[in-house]
Amino acid sequence: GENVEQHPSTLSVQEGDSAVIKCTYSDSASNYFPWYKQELGKRPQLIIDIRSNVGEKKDQRIAVTLNKTAKHFSLHITETQPEDSAVYFCAALFGGNEKLTFGTGTRLTIIP
Amino acid sequence: ETGVTQSPTHLIKTRGQQVTLRCSSQSGHNTVSWYQQALGQGPQFIFQYYREEENGRGNFPPRFSGLQFPNYSSELNVNALELDDSALYLCASSPSRDRVYGYTFGSGTRLTVV
After folding, report:
1. pLDDT tens, B26-42?
2. pLDDT, tens digit, for every residue of A48-78?
3. CA-CA to A87 of 20 to 30 Å: which in A22, A49, A110, B31?
4. Which of 57-76 (B) contact A at CB < 8 A?
5. DSSP-assigned states of every residue in A45-100
């Protein structure tokens, strides 16, 4: 079925270090993979996304890599800052482009 | 601001009651998707509306229903509320049903069922 697995569920990183969050998906036909950041009590906000015709995409300190053969994609945050602390969700587009399936989330804590 | 607005922001209902949540899509967007986010979980797809018709549905019972109006705003209705329906309900709009790339969520409605 349609499934997205996300690891780790919690991650603590020293300020200035890098953080990596990984996701795997079940449907090889998926072609769109967004990442969302959600702060406490707020809506998920899109921070970066990638389509299947691209292997890597970068936006300042944030990058996403995609390995379609292995059906996994990762979020990389470099030079982490306290404001990066939040819950991060990966997602994949399934089923004729109408439905995003989300991972279970990673709670990232940046230690000052 | 994303241009997607939801109302109300918070709501408390009693088990067994019915509730209607509203979403105004971003200007120029004809597709609205609804998601349920329970505490500590990722959003779960409820259904999508395109040009006033349902276009895809997740694993939610029939007591979850929706509408889309000619101006592309949308309603989510939930009948016979259960305690497990307590969640943040999010909607997102997109320019068309096959262009959901990059869509963003409204601020959500937090529903509490007691």
Report:
1. 888 888 999 999 999 99
2. 999 888 899 999 999 999 999 999 999 999 9
3. B31
4. 58
5. EEEEEEETT-SEEEETTEEEEEETTTTEEEEEE-S--GGG-EEEEEEEEETTTTEE
